[in-house]
Amino acid sequence: MSRYLPRVVDQELDELLAGVPAIALEGPKGVGKTVTSVLRARTTYELDRPAHRALLEADPLRFESDSAPVLLDEWQRLPFVWDSVRRSVDRDPTPGRFLLAGSAVPANAPVHSGAGRIVNVRMRPLALAERGVAPAAVSSAKLLAGDADAPDGECDLNVADYFEEIVASGFPAIRATTGRARRALLDGYVERIAQRDFREQGQPVRKAAALYAWMRAYAAATATNASYNRILDAATPGEGDKPARSTTEAYRHVLSDLWILDPLPAWTPSDNRLHRLAQAPKHHLADPALAARLLGMGVDGLLRGREAGPQVFRDGTLAGRLFESLVALSVRVYAQAAGARVGHFRTRNGDHEIDLIVERDDGRVLAIEVKMSAVVGDDDVRHLSWLRDHLGEEVIDAIVVTTGRHAYRRADGIGVVPAGLLGP
Fold it and tell me: What is the pTM for the complete model shown?
């Protein structure tokens, strides 16, 4: 095995293994679930291998006598093992017995959710801090804890470097390549979804071109809350014979089950002190590299400010939205480590909007604006200031994440943090 790249989720997994009997590690193919799990397992069943499936089909309780932790990798290939693990946990709730790694919700879902027995943990592609491209000098956990110290640090990354991180992807094996090889791997990733994964989910694709068109339209809607009707119209401009609504709903359902769609939900304050809030999620793919590749965008195109893809309702430039998606991916990884939730905030008429709201269990929040700029002016912080004025101490901190060089705190108390410096 090549050198393991530490992941933010490592600590969460280790803490859970010490306290719960079974963990389901979920996320799209290629994010590193298997490698991360194997490092913690003493027994491994690779259920994408017919020989390993045959062992458990012949003896469904075989793993009960194996050395723990037992890893059931790609468990969705043999869905009954979920209920087998649940029943085994009922008999013996000793912590650290099972790891289930899955790249899809099985088409025939288990009868029981596993609640109270199996803890679900999400694993996303590599966040910026995990990629090692800059020192993660500003801790999200400290910001969430109310550490009022001024953000500090210097980042050598420039706009072109962030665009390279967008197209390089957070899939460890893919980002290790360059140029034509990387493009081919990303193309192959999308092709596998249409040609194999949909079929394995019980939804074979009759018209692959229609699915690709819909995915390109979704990619073009990255970091917007465009309606699904608008996405469909953008995927089929001028066509009278559009895919049926049931077809596009199937696209969404299967892509969600494969963890390819990763929409950011709308945030609503718990005490409902803010009114007229939008409820639609913001659209994100699991990795902004998938969106860039679907739209045929590389670093040069992003630097030139070229727009690409179907004409979906646009909110800012494509480059800016893909940068926001990269930051959103990273913030969600860091927030999960801190036990926090992430959403976006927007009033119904759009007069106030904040890209990311990180909420603690007690309802207090860290508000984050994302700006693809090295310079932050008063206009860039007006929505953050408005939220602080309306929610007062419920806003623990407010920052703007930028492509700039320096981290600092403005005179109005709002922090400015280069994306590469933000960490868990």
Answer: 0.94
